[in-house]
Amino acid sequence: MRAFSFILALLASMSANGTPLSSRTTSPPPTTQIVYQFPNETWLENIAIRQTGQLLVTVLSAPELWQVTLDPKSSQHALNANTNKPLASATLVHRIPDVTGLLGIVEMQQSDVFYVVAGNFSYDTYTSTSGSYSIWKIDMRRPSPHAVASKLTDIPEGVALNGMAALNMSQGLLVVADAGAGVVYTVNVDTGNYSKTIDDPTMKPNSSLAIGINGMKIRDEYLYYTSTAQKLFSRIPIDTTSGTPTGPAEIIATNVFGDDFSLDQAGDAYVAENPWDVVAKVTSGGEVSVVAGNLNSTLVAGATSTAFERTSGDGSVLYVTTSGGIGTPVRIEGGKVVAIYI
Ligand SMILES: *[C@@H]1O[C@H](CO)[C@@H](O)[C@H](O)[C@H]1NC(C)=O
Ligand SMILES: *[C@@H]1O[C@H](CO)[C@@H](O)[C@H](O)[C@H]1NC(C)=O
Ligand SMILES: *[C@@H]1O[C@H](CO)[C@@H](O)[C@H](O)[C@H]1NC(C)=O
Ligand SMILES: *[C@@H]1O[C@H](CO)[C@@H](O)[C@H](O)[C@H]1NC(C)=O
Ligand SMILES: *[C@@H]1O[C@H](CO)[C@@H](O)[C@H](O)[C@H]1NC(C)=O
Ligand SMILES: *[C@@H]1O[C@H](CO)[C@@H](O)[C@H](O)[C@H]1NC(C)=O
Q: Which of 26, 54, 186, 191 could tie 197 with a disulfide, CB 3.0–4.6 Å?
């Protein structure tokens, strides 16, 4: 039994103030479908959708980036939620040397050029090796899966780098969260230069869970973020030419045990609540409801990130990556990509 599993099992049974989780509202179960499942003990960490509609998933349990290609015959409308037929195939895009896993991923600048966080983070113990982190460029503008990978920069000050978001495409700026230090770096992808640009109390980890700011997205000159240990979903106004804050952080919702997330067009967040084995919706007004999963279910066990479908237009398919429930009350299975029809 892993020590951390025990800690999370305790965390999972209660919310921050001791009220049962069931006090949050639960929507009627949506239609869902397993898109692709990896072997047991594969922790999928983050997802980005290519302009081709193919899914790129980072793996934390190995330093690998995989591409998941949906079977063209299985269009959304033809899907039968009860079928077990594979919906997709997966191919290894790239394996990064000298690290144990990959974390955040973001598409930047030219279409089909992605950046990923690489480093040594143990998913068994939730401990990070400070100084092991770097950011890599993955150029997909070649016939897939022959991506061209190159290291952009090491970030030796990084304690536990995690989520990334595009800050300013024309200037080539992205932001990367340091979950271990509770700060945000701004990185120039043209030069590799980077600076610490945000250091806020709402982003800090705590002494028993060393994961603070985790998932990030930028919308309308605000940085939205989950802060895992403090169970916050927050935003802070930022200058999109520098990444520095222009005002105080605002807490949108509390009792959100968030990992990565995505925003829909209305600005509502679909948050992967990894230790609680659910995907939750957090409205811009701060109302929280469970969209899919529960503590007794493998449906989205160990949900780590979400992303809306990009090609078919209506944006109603939400892809979720999972860890397979490692460290949660659910038994371990292979990490998977699940489609939720919102
Ligand atoms: C990260 O892990 C790799 C693979 O185990 C190891 O070779 C490397 O030395 C580690 N890096 C650091 C900074 O500990
Ligand atoms: C990006 O930087 C340019 C200046 O180079 C600025 O005009 C623009 O408003 C910035 N923000 C975004 C979101 O592109
Ligand atoms: C890059 O370096 C300069 C100092 O040479 C600094 O002023 C700037 O803020 C740095 N950061 C980024 C993200 O470009
Ligand atoms: C750290 O965060 C976790 C998750 O929110 C919480 O259960 C735990 O009580 C916190 N520990 C401390 C020492 O505040
Ligand atoms: C999980 O199952 C247990 C035992 O059947 C039950 O008491 C509990 O309410 C269930 N929890 C959820 C979140 O469904
Ligand atoms: C996955 O591996 C874990 C740990 O080795 C084991 O407990 C679990 O039963 C396995 N699950 C499946 C579905 O094989």
A: 186
Predicted confidence (pLDDT) per residue in 51-108, tens digit: 988 999 999 999 999 999 988 665 443 444 445 555 899 999 999 999 999 999 999 9
Q: DSSP readout, 93-104? A: EEE-TT-SEEEE
List residues near ligand 6 (CB under 6 A). Answer: 40-41, 331-333
Ligand 1, atom 7, lies closest to the CA of 98
For 5-341, CATH gives: 2.120.10.30
d(CA 302, CA 30) in angstroms, rounded, equals 18
Considering the entire predicted model, what is its pTM? 0.91
Q: Where are the domains of the chain?
A: 5-341
Residue with CA closest to ligand 4 atom 8: 208
User: Could you tell me if 216 and 179 are in contact, meaning their C-beta atoms sit under 8 angstroms apart?
Assistant: no
Pocket of ligand 3 contains residue 185 by CB under 6 Å: no
Q: How far is the CA of 227 from the centre of ligand 4 (A)?
A: 12
